[in-house]
Amino acid sequence: MIGQHSISDTQATDTPFPDMWNGSLWTIWYEAACYVAIGVLVSIVARKHLGKVLIAFFIALTGARLMSALELVSIGGLLNDVLPLAIAFLAGALLHVYAEKVKVNSITVSAAVILLAVSTVLNLAPALAHLPSRFC
Q: Which of 16, 36, 54, 121 fits a 20 to 30 Å CA distance from 83?
């Protein structure tokens, strides 16, 4: 026996897309684009330079996000939504490329937790939390 014939009253109203189920699926296209971009990047950048190029992109995008968080520049619309996804993707790519050099131990995890805490207190976590959150 069906006890509930509709799901219309089960949607959250305080979400970015209150009338949409599976709102997080909007990121799938952008995630696929990130994989394609990484594929293109590793195809045209020599392996010995890949890490440096990823670091440059990570710093540039994180800097843009930080300047936006500090209200030094205005990043609106779709770019404002996609930028954090790209930064998080780059953080993961960096940790993959440098997996043998970046050790996950009590020191690195503690440093990541401290950076997360400080950036949260300063209300800068949306701009600075991507890399350290990969450790926690």
A: 121
- For the chain, the average pLDDT equals 82
Nearest 5°: the CA angle 32, 126, 56 is: 60
Distance CA 117, CA 123 (A): 10
How sure is the predictor about 50, in pLDDT bands with cuts at 50, 70 and 90? Answer: very high
Angle of CA points 7, 10, 11, to nearest 5° = 105
Q: Model-level pTM?
A: 0.74
Q: Residues with Cβ < 8 Å from 102, sequence gap 6 or more?
A: 95, 108
Cβ–Cβ < 8 Å for 65, 83: yes
CB of 120 closer than 8 Å to CB of 68: no
Note whether 65 and 84 are within 8 A (CB).
yes
